[in-house]
Sequence to fold (690 residues):
Amino acid sequence: MQTSDTVSLAQAGAIALIRIDNPPVNAAGYSVRAGIVAALDWLADHPEVKAAALFAAGRTFIAGADIREFGKPPQDPWLPEVCNRIEACETPIVCILHGTTLGGGLEVALSAHARIAMPGTKVGLPEVHLGILPGAGGTQRTPRLTGQAFAVEAIVSGRHIPADEALSVGLIDALTDAPDPESAARQAAQAVVDCTLATRRTGELQVSPDPDALAAARSQTRAKHPHLFSPLKCIDAVAASTLPLPEGLARERVLFTECLNSPQRAGLIHAFFAERATAKVPEAAATPRAFQHVGVIGAGTMGSGIATACLLAGLNVTLTDQTDTALQAAQSRISDNLAGAVKRGKLSPEARDAALQAFTTTDDLTTLADCDLIIEAAFEDMDVKAQIFRQLDQIAKPGAVLATNTSYLDVNAIARQSARRGDVLGLHFFSPAHIMRLLEVVVADATTPEVTATGFALAKKLRKIAVRSGVCDGFIGNRILMTTRREAEYMMLDGATPQQIDDALEAAGWALGPFRTSDLAGLDIAWAQRQRRAATRPADERYVEVPDRLCEAGHVGRKAGAGYYLADGAPNPAVATALEAERQAKGITLRDFDAKDIVTRYLTAMIMEAASIVEEGIALRPIDVDVVLLFGYGFPRHLGGPLHQADQIGAQTLVDRLTTYAQEDAQFWRIPQILCDMAQTNTSFADRNG
Ligand code: 3HC
Fold:
């Protein structure tokens, strides 16, 4: 019988099987919670049932609370109550775990009287990644089974724990060899009736205090996640597990509510859904073209990274360049990358050997005739790329997808070199391409839906997050970077040091400030780009010359041993000299910037450009911009992305702020119409995410 839309119960003599079926991941939403409680009520009325087993249909046991319900008014029964009811149930209940039994799913299982896992199951309490803590008894029942040291590590890391490890630490009681969760449920319930499977209440176990483990966790967490709110709260909650269960649960509830109400929770959950939303593009309905053999043109850092990423995904790769020296260097870089993957446990030695077998190099472009997908990663120069695309027209087989990995250049202009413009798209990888998860799929005017869909299919194969971008200078990410870099340079010229700016942003959670990022990436890339723009740069645009002076002196960043900083991280004195000269020549009146001003101005510049990108339709939705910044530019995940932040600030406040800034420099500070419209209609970017 159905006990709710998503839960059913079947009695077979002395056992009952409770089945959850709430695709795609059996999240413990209202209907699941209500269905479990109704099943418990039924058990209370049926004393002839001596054991019950709870299992789930589909790809996983419950993968957590239903995250979509957070921030909305709670609906009884709450998950903590459901867990308490399971634990208190007079009829022993066994949980059968499979797939990814996470968060509230594991908490349901911990409150059952025994836990059996299918092979390959992973369990975990990943709530910390959503800015919360396990709030349905996970911080109290886990230490009762494993001790505080393991519990605190598992909860603060939020990692997925393989079934074998879960068994060895006592989180689960046994592995089953039953063919499916339903058979496992039947066997386990019968085993309880037959007294061959022991049951007990987790909440009745005692926890020994482990103050050393908690102190170590606190100091590690403060050092590793200084900006984050919930990890320390997780530790506080585990510390309460030595209290009697009701008191520990009450403490957990208070801490959970603090996390739930924190803006970081909203930012992290926004990031969770954003990451999954970007694949939902109009072209998703088209059938991607098949690709197994990928050609990569250009054996530099980017080309080698792209080749590595494809090899790691099991694709065949032919890498081409003009010189043997370049190819040899790439070959050893790629072998090192693969060896690194083996060392990190990401690749087996056998898979590494297979990848090397699937890899060939050649200086003959015509060898790419067999490739299904060709990715040009040559020097960032329109003439070079145009020439390659003209050649590809003669070489590539019909139906091959032709991609350019450009960071800034006009993909429409590149496509026009080809007689098969529909086959051409941009695939903007981020360096190191085998590590960075972002891929901008740049759709040109003539790109066919199948070719765009192939870009997304490639990203999926490479386990990357693809974001669709229209064509403009710098696409989504680098266009915003150009604007924020300009604002950082203006602040520098007007009185802040690069170190002050970097430190302010890093203290706010950015992975790396803009000047340290420039040093890492190389100042010469932006230099070349500025030179390209020189002829069309508006006469009234403020231009900061310090970066040019550094490049002219060979201080192009870390690869040259000096950029804004020296090799040891100290500020490069050449910067102060160049700044002094430029300030004098331009008669700049210096001003004070504190860390708050710096972050506000930088973020506002970012929001201004991001809003224009949405307004122009370069990004499909605000959420796409957020994902680009989160996954490609070190934007702090707990802030959710620039346009999520824009919603927190409010459109009217942004319009007012931009109006004030525009009084200083009306050429740089613009008020995008979309922000004015949102201020007028009292709407948000979230309303435009669809
Ligand atoms: N609630 C609501 N929706 C969820 C969800 C959840 N807990 N977990 C996944 N989904 C949705 C996804 O948004 C996605 O929806 P879409 O198809 O509309 O985009 C769909 O389920 C499939 O998810 P994935 O694309 O991520 O599928 P994968 O197979 O790649 O991964 C997974 C599956 C490992 C379960 C992954 O989805 C995941 O990590 N989910 C979150 C798990 C989690 O954080 N659980 C804790 C929740 S908080 C909690 O339990 C609080 C409690 O302590 C009180």
In short: The mean pLDDT is 96.
